């Protein structure tokens, strides 16, 4: 069947994505309670017991809220780098030693024919990462929670069939919003979150003829709108990368999952 994925939920209240190649199912982050995760998976006809492993991007609560409980309930291995594990050990409770797997930043793990590569990103966490997933010629990149898109990150995610990419905020909405300036400064900083404009500009550097879809993820409920994110990104891409006519900009949701997206084998 090749590779398919669903964004179970995305936003400041919680994040989780499933990647499936027909034999292996990987869960990226567990940003909700174990019970909520089970419900989100059932929306896509998934059982939590079918998950083979969990990959962690970083230790913030909207990415690991239910990590310990879900891993213990279903005896799941957890993959994270050493610095992230140092933070996880203080937050998620006891995990069986055999399920504590170290995947260093820049490392590659193979799960059957599904290959996973991690890469470092800029965010205010211990050692945050994004992931690229490879199945044959297919490539999916998942990258959220980054203050800016470095050239190294662009290099890693270029030529993806599909991307899950952060479009966290509209800069003007954030600046006039109700957050204290200290928080606004954090979000706008190099270790904060990617704006709609920054995401659109970065896309122009990584899109190729292969890229069919981009899922706009981790939207702020206070300082963004899905229609605004889509319009901003689309305008930038159409102006700077008009050859990307086949690109689909896809929504993600804080309260429900996206439909399965099956990557073409072409």
Automatic annotation (TrEMBL):
Source organism: Paenibacillus phytorum
Membrane-spanning intervals of the chain: none
Source species, domain of life: Bacteria
Entries under SUPFAM superfamilies matching the protein: Metallo-hydrolase/oxidoreductase
Protein name: MBL fold metallo-hydrolase
One Pfam family this sequence matches: Lactamase_B_2
Catalytic activity: 3',5'-cyclic UMP + H2O = UMP + H(+); 3',5'-cyclic CMP + H2O = CMP + H(+)
Entry-linked SMART domains: Lactamase_B
Residue ranges of domain Metallo-beta-lactamase in the record: 13-218
Physiological role: Counteracts the endogenous Pycsar antiviral defense system. Phosphodiesterase that enables metal-dependent hydrolysis of host cyclic nucleotide Pycsar defense signals such as cCMP and cUMP.
Residues making up the signal peptide according to the UniProt record: none
């Amino acid at each position: 069947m090749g590779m398919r994925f669903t964004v179970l939920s995305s936003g400041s209240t919680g994040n989780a994505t499933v990647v499936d190649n027909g034999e292996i199912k990987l869960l990226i982050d567990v940003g909700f309670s174990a019970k909520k995760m089970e419900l989100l998976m059932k929306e896509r006809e998934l059982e939590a017991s079918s998950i083979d492993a969990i990959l962690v991007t970083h230790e913030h609560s909207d990415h690991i809220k239910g990590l310990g409980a879900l891993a213990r309930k279903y005896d799941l291995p957890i993959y994270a780098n050493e610095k992230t594990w140092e933070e996880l050990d203080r937050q998620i409770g006891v995990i069986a030693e055999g399920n504590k797997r170290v995947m260093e930043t820049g490392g590659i793990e193979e799960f059957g024919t599904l290959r996973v590569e991690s890469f470092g990103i800029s965010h205010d966490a211990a050692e945050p990462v994004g992931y690229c997933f490879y199945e044959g010629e297919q490539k999916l990149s998942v990258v959220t929670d980054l203050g800016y898109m470095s050239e190294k990150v662009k290099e890693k995610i270029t030529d993806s069939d599909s991307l899950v990419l952060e479009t966290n905020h509209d800069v003007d909405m954030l600046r006039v919003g109700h957050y204290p300036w200290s928080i606004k400064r954090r979000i706008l900083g190099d270790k904060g979150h990617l704006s709609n404009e920054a995401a659109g500009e970065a896309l122009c550097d990584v899109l190729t003829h292969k890229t069919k879809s981009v899922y706009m993820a981790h939207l702020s409920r206070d300082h963004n709108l899905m229609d605004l994110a889509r319009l901003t990104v689309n305008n930038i891409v159409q102006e700077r990368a008009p050859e990307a006519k086949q690109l689909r900009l896809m929504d993600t949701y804080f309260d429900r999952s996206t439909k399965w997206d099956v990557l073409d084998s072409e």
